[in-house]
Amino acid sequence: MASASKRSTVPADYPPPVDSPDEFVKHGLDGEDERIDVGVAIVGGGTAGLATANRLLQLLADDPALMEQLGEVPVAVLEKARTCGGHNLSGAVMRPGPLEELFPDLSREEWRREGFAFGEVTKEAVYLLPTAKSKLRIPPPPPFRNHGNEVVSVAALARFQQRQAEEGGAYILTETSATQLVVEDGAVLGVRSGDKGRGRDGQPLGNFEPGTDIRASATVLADGCWGSLTGAAIREFDLAKNREPQVWELGVKEVWKVPKALDRVIHTIGPWPLKLSAKYGQIGGTWIYPMKDERTGDDLVSIGFVVDLEYADATTSAHDLLQLFKQHPLVRGILEGGERVGWGAKALPGGGYWSVPKLTMPGALLVGDAGGLVDTVSLKGVHHAIRSGRLAAEAIYAGLRNVTSFDAYEEALFSSATGKELYQVRNGRQPFQKGFIRGAPLVNLAIATRGRLPGGTLNWHRNDARAMFVGDTAKRYPRPDGRYTFDKLSSVFITGNATRDDAPNHIRVQKRVPREIAETWRWMCPAGVYEIPDDAPETGDVDVIVNYTNCVQCGAITAKGGRLTPPEGGDGPLYQLT
Question: Would the pLDDT of 557 be above 90?
Answer without folding.
Answer: yes
